[in-house]
Design a protein that fits this description.
- It is elongated and about 170 Å long.
- It contains 10 helices and 11 strands.
- It has 4 domains: 40 residues; 38 residues, no CATH class; 122 residues, Tetrahydropterin Synthase, Chain A, CATH 3.30.479.30; 86 residues.
- Strands 6, 9, 10 and 11 form a 4-stranded antiparallel sheet that branches. It has a 3-stranded antiparallel sheet with strand order 3-2-5, with no helix packed on it. A two-stranded antiparallel ribbon has the order 1-4.
- A hairpin with a 3-residue loop joins β7 and β8.
- It is α+β, with helices and mostly antiparallel strands and 374 residues long.
- Helices cover 47% and strands 18% of the residues.
Length: 374
Amino acid sequence: MPWSNQGGGGPWGTGGPKGPWGSGPQSTGPTPPDFEELLRRSQDKLKSVLPGGNLGGRGILLIALAALVVWGFSGFYRVEPDEQGVVLRFGKYRTDAYPGLNYHLPYPIEGVLTPKVTRVNRIDIGMRVIDDPRRGTTMRDVPEESLMLTGDENIVDVDVSVFWLVKTGGAGDYLFNIQNPEGTVKAVAESAMREIVGRSDIQPILLRQNIETPVQELMQKTLDSYQAGIQITQVQMQKVDPPAQVIDSFRDVQAARADLERAQNEAQTYANRVVPEARGRVAQVTQAAEAYREQTVAEARGAASRFLKVFDEYKKAPDVTRQRIYLETMERVFGGADKIILDSGTQQPGSIQGVVPVLPLNELTRRAPAPGVK
């Protein structure tokens, strides 16, 4: 019989034995419900609803049909725009489902998983982001992840952020081929970063040259070999520094290298300015010498040709040619010279013997006005 029918308000009521802490609880409120009474009342209500007032074969059939309808409608499900549905039949992957209202055979025949496929996830290597309500967001360094050995046997402190999402159509691989996606991406990222850094010198690493792209390609290749269904969208190097113990020395080295590059650039600039000028002067002198040589050779050849022609004419008429050469030579000699004519046969009173006054026509010619001037 239920406790309420014993008239004591339960095993620890006033009519029953005492509880483990002394006297039992006092019956100050209503007594616990009688479950047998509730069951009886439910049966009475169900009989009043069913035709005939009792649970016959027809009533059981209606209940079964209603349960079947409810079970069938439980197969409808909705996939959100940022999700991709993966339908399972008895726990085995069957097909993909895309955003919208979809249907699968009700549980336990089929089920569906809806992972977020458009959300970009972030994994940090070498650092941790800590959200402190009082201090705000702070960064904590993780040296066991960030310290790496370079190809030239130096140590570098590298912090990297990797951004990834589920591949389009790769939700099935993402769910069933890897057990811990975030841990897998983190392990692959750290491994790829150490491999690329280990093959590079420290100088291009500090300058972040040709590091991020090879790391992303190597990560994607590794994850594809795992059939992880993950797409690496970006690899960002957040911090690249030497270890804290030697960072001052590295900065001095960097400053010295910067001065060296600056001096080399200045020297190269000076060479780029001076060398073309020198080459231009060399080309000018060379061209002038070649032109003088061509001119001298041409003049010599012309003189030799003229001499040969005159000599041929001379052999034909020596006297005439000799006289002509004499006259032409005297014409060239006296043509541009000032001349004074002396006539020994002319004598005038009061004049010096042998000297004839000559009108200075050459002076008059020099003083003659230019044409068109009055």
